Amino acid sequence: MRANEEKLVEENIKLPGFVLKKYFPTRMNDEDLYQIGCIGLMTAARKFDASLGYTFSTFAAKVIRYTIIRAIRDECAEKRLINKLAYSLDEIIFSTGEGDVNLTRQVADLETRSPEDEVLRNISLNKIMEAIDGLPLQQQSCFRGYYLEDINQVQLAKMLGIKQVTVSREIKRATKIIKGKIA
Known about the structure:
By secondary structure, the chain is mainly α. The protein folds into 2 domains: about 5-85, Four Helix Bundle (Hemerythrin (Met), subunit A) (Up-down Bundle); about 90-180, Arc Repressor Mutant, subunit A. Helices cover about 75% and strands about 5% of the residues. The protein has 9 helices and 2 strands, in the order ααααββααααα. The model is unreliable at about 105-115 (pLDDT under 50).
């Protein structure tokens, strides 16, 4: 950081707290957001151009607020991804005489497995990948995009040039075929 940037940061160090209090009163005690606000303050100091005619505090407040909003948005998106992944992992892959097998169960059992169990796990994952590879191209694209690449159905439809309802049906058909090949 240059000397003038350090001076701007030191003179306005209370600004992230002010922005939190004004725009995010319910999250005022969140230390992480305060730190993110401080990062926004440093970014503002680095990008500030006094020749444009506005004060640093006005510019910095907007940068800090934007930085905090982006962090909150990213956190929410991460939580949605985790929930979606957890839901898709809980879908039953195949049934055995001892009960249903799903990916969550397979991952949870990793620590208690013997080498023989590890071989069986690799075989079942290989079966899943072979089943996916054996799907028709459109079903494969829909299934891989939705479950493995986390692309939503609307985006997949646009990418593939088909309707969203077709994507949904292809995913459902692919899942049924994969379960049939694995069982």
